[in-house]
Design brief:
The complex is a heterodimer of chains A (507) and B (317). By secondary structure, chain A is an alpha+beta fold. In chain A, 29% of the residues lie in helices and 22% in strands. In chain A, helix 8 runs antiparallel to helix 10 and helix 14 packs antiparallel against helix 15. The termini of chain A are far apart. Chain B is mostly helical and 317 residues long. Chain B is 77% helix and 0% strand. The termini of chain B are close together. The chains are: A alpha+beta (507), B mainly alpha (317).
């Protein structure tokens, strides 16, 4: 009888044979070609719709608008070579010679058409309301766009830098938007991957540097990291916080992080107890933010005890750094003043679908227990959590977000109580003073005056606490050492980092 | 036999209808609104007017019974509808992904039969002695380790540390057969770990139950070779419970490979189903559940009919 013996030699021979199973077709690290590990497959890459951050990154590969963001947060020219302002309400953009992917030149008429589509009453564009503040768009010649606004709009060049504001060809169809960006889509499998190739007629000489770019969705964060380690991908987004130390220590890899997105609390203002600013402030002063950074983000982030205006911003107000400092005694006093000296019970809405939302809620719960608040956690899936938030079916809730840009006006969606109900901001909690100051900031061109306006706004926000900041969280990209030219943009601009694919190279 | 088959078929159809109707009701009753989710990507707020417009476009403003009627009418025409997220035809998505899941489940089942059946028989034949004890311990261990732990370990050791294999993914067979097989074997092997242990246990107890039976002893008394007794008289009789258990598990796996698909980034049907539920993409959820339930019911129908063939008493039951 033959006996099958699995001895050490057979095992080693088998293991040695395994590498030959490796195929090189989808391996990363061929110079000029790159494989990018996305955190999720974009649900949509419609040019003007908000399809989340993965979608934004892909859109930045294919499209360009009139402007984009420079690393300091200011607007820089893209399809527009330069722009000037005539009075308070007229902006004049001069276009450069650029081509769409179908070979047509980008003309002033195309810009006008794009912006009018966005502002159309039936459009589902993210910037629809903003574009409706435009009175008319004139095209004196093929290279000049004159935008006349209904009221002064200081932030217009910043809006136009958004990944939701690309200029596309009027020949685009619903299925295929023809852009003027550095890469062209050559193939895609829904839910799996998107293949792109260099657009040879891109308007920046010598760019993009990559010949091909393949974006592959890895929804599992651990697998995303493993794919980078194993060499399947050259670059990954959304580096999980727990993996950051290990990646930073790996000599074959590099990590690029910025504190951009932030976590915060929003409140239901239509019923007690959170219709009382004293209770909201009590919550704000009861939370030890270092514990949140440690517990929910593995130390990768920092406390946020004021409005999310980053220190690097010219609008940062150092005197509010500890606006909502950790002070349980003050928190208890505020609760007593509001008539809850003997304690109260509330429900905190968050989601079990995302670890950072759940962990943040649990730590907030512990800290509030110390000031006599009994907090019950409600942790449904994300879809349910969004629906409950939009309908105001909660007491208070954990939220994570980024500003639209690095200007304080970019915070409007999180703090302006006059906007329609939405889970990203407090429910039924009017903030007339803040609304007024945001509006004033939009029509004031003088930078010193704007600084004073947003200083006042932050002061009011800290007193009324319609929004309670918790933490900045670190947002990171990780890549092989051989990847160059890809740079994480700072602060709220981190999700615009896709802009730098045009300068990215692999070796 | 024809009457028996017809009855089973009627019950099967009823089951499919019940399952899909129940899922239709449940997915519409739980909170979460596809239009709101669609317009609120990336943490932005959805304009109520835009939500209402999208509701009208997707037909979500109709009463539930109208939506149900339209859904059944669509089905009757063989129309699964389109995804609410990107208008992609659901039938195309299923046609693309179902074969992958079937392949994954099929290969896992094949590995499990190949390893579980002989080892179970061997354990029964050596009951109480060391091969049995070793195999039973291994099976106990395999059963108690969750599938995502096995999967994560495979990725961690083979891909991340040893760089021997890619960290998951999928390549069509036509493009690169070697890589296709490699990427298939990792998740299939992971699923097979638990399934092999289950089959091991079932075949071990089936063989143990058959060994002392009279026909086996009669065969021994007739002086038949031990090999003949085991293959012809023991294993053949032990096969039925093994097939039943295997079929039930494979049916469960059709919609239940999501963890493995997630860990290995394998673009099968289960992952799509979970994504569709998260996005409250009703047409996609309904279609996938319908296809899976039809397959499970078919699988059971085949087993039922097999019983009927083997055991005439069941035909009149």
């Amino acid at each position: 009888m033959t006996k099958f013996i699995l001895d050490r030699r057979a095992l080693l021979a088998g293991a040695a044979a395994l590498p030959f199973l490796r195929s090189h077709s989808a391996r990363a690290s061929t110079p000029g070609n790159m494989v990018f590990g996305l955190s999720s497959y974009p649900p949509t890459i419609e040019p003007w719709a908000n399809g989340g951050t993965a979608s934004a990154t892909v859109k930045l590969m294919i499209h360009r608008g009139l402007t984009s963001f420079a690393a300091d947060g200011s607007a820089q020219g893209e399809l527009a070579e330069s722009w000037t302002r005539e009075g308070d309400r007229i902006w004049v953009f001069k276009l450069r010679a650029a081509k769409f992917h179908n070979g047509d030149p980008v003309t002033a008429e195309d810009v006008k058409w794009s912006f009018e589509q966005i502002g159309d009453p039936a459009s589902t564009a993210y910037f629809r309301a903003e574009m409706q503040r435009i009175d008319k768009i004139e095209t004196p010649d093929a290279r000049t766009v004159r935008i006349v606004t209904k009221e002064p709009l200081v932030t217009l060049p910043l809006w136009l830098a958004s990944f939701h504001m690309p200029v596309i060809s009027p020949k685009s169809t619903k299925a295929l938007a023809i852009g003027a960006g550095p890469f062209v889509i050559t193939g895609q499998e829904r839910g799996v991957s998107i293949d792109l190739a260099r657009f040879d007629d891109y308007y920046k000489p010598g760019l993009p540097k990559l010949k091909t770019l393949r974006a592959v969705a890895y929804a599992d964060e651990n697998l995303r990291v493993a794919a980078l380690h194993s060499g399947d991908v050259d670059l990954i987004e959304y580096v999980p916080w727990q993996a950051m130390d290990e990646i930073a220590a790996d000599p074959a890899l590099k990590l690029d992080t910025t504190d951009g997105p932030f976590m915060y609390l929003v409140f239901n203002g239509s019923k007690p107890p959170f219709n009382d600013a004293r209770v909201r402030r009590a919550v704000a002063h009861a939370i030890k933010r270092e514990d949140l950074v440690k517990g929910a983000f593995f130390g990768r982030g920092s406390g946020l005890a004021h409005l999310p205006i980053p220190e690097s911003s010219p609008f940062y107000n150092p005197e509010f750094k500890n606006g909502w400092n950790y002070d349980p005694a003050l928190a208890k006093r505020l609760l007593a003043e509001a008539g809850f000296g003997s304690g109260l019970s509330v429900t905190l809405l968050s989601t079990a679908q995302y670890g950072m939302h759940k962990d943040t809620a649990e730590i907030v719960q512990q800290h509030l227990a110390e000031i006599g608040m009994t907090v019950t956690l409600s942790l449904p899936d994300w879809a349910t959590r969004v629906a409950l938030g939009n309908r105001g079916q909660y007491d208070f809730s954990v939220m994570g977000n980024t500003a639209d840009n690095n200007d304080p006006d970019g915070l409007a969606s999180a703090i302006d109580g006059s906007l329609p109900p939405a889970y990203v901001r407090s429910f039924n909690l009017p903030t007339p003073k803040i609304t007024e100051l945001l509006q004033l900031g939009r029509v004031t061109f003088d930078e010193a005056k704007r600084k004073a306006i947003y200083h006042e706004m932050e002061k009011v926000a800290i007193e009324e606490a319609p929004f309670v900041g918790l933490t900045w969280r670190s947002q990171g990209y990780a890549m092989r050492k051989g990847v160059t030219g890809f740079t994480n943009l700072p602060g709220a601009l981190t999700f615009f980092t896709g802009e730098t694919f045009e300068t990215t190279a692999t070796s | 036999m024809a009457g028996y088959a017809l009855r089973r078929l009627a019950v099967a159809l009823l089951l499919v209808w019940l399952v899909t109707s129940l899922v239709f009701l449940v997915i519409h009753l739980i909170p979460g609104d596809p239009a709101e989710l669609l317009l609120a990507q990336g943490g932005v707020s959805a304009d109520p007017a835009m939500v209402a417009a999208l509701h009208a476009k997707l037909g979500l403003d109709q009463p539930l019974w109208v939506q149900y009627r339209d859904y059944l009418a669509g089905l009757a025409h063989g129309d699964f509808g389109s995804s609410m997220v990107d208008d992609h035809p659901v039938s195309e998505e299923i046609a693309l992904r179902l074969p992958r899941t079937l392949e994954l489940v099929g290969v896992a089942g094949f590995i499990a039969v190949l390893l579980g059946l002989p080892s179970g028989a061997m354990a029964a034949l050596t009951a109480g002695r060391w091969p049995d004890q070793a195999l039973s311990t291994a099976a106990g261990l395999a059963l108690s380790v969750p599938v995502f732990v096995v999967g994560t370990l495979v990725v961690l050791v083979l891909a991340q540390e040893l760089h021997l294999v890619p960290a998951g993914g999928y390549v069509p067979l036509a493009r690169d057969p070697g890589r296709h097989l490699l990427l298939l074997l990792m998740p299939a092997g992971t699923i097979a770990v638990g399934l092999t242990a289950t089959l091991f246990r079932v075949s071990r107890s089936a063989v143990l139950e058959i060994l002392p039976r009279e026909h086996v002893r009669a065969a021994q008394a007739r002086g038949l070779a031990p090999r003949t007794i085991i293959f012809r008289h023991v294993l053949r009789n032990a096969l039925m419970p093994v097939i039943t258990v295997l079929a039930l598990h494979l049916g469960g796996l059709l919609g239940g490979t999501v963890l493995v698909e997630y860990v290995f980034n394998y673009p099968g049907l289960s992952g799509t189903l979970v994504d569709a539920v998260s996005a409250r993409d009703y047409p996609e959820v309904m279609a996938i559940v319908l296809v899976i339930s039809v397959l499970v019911v078919l699988l059971n129908l085949v087993i039922d009919l097999c019983y009927g063939l083997i055991d005439p008493r069941l035909r009149y039951g």
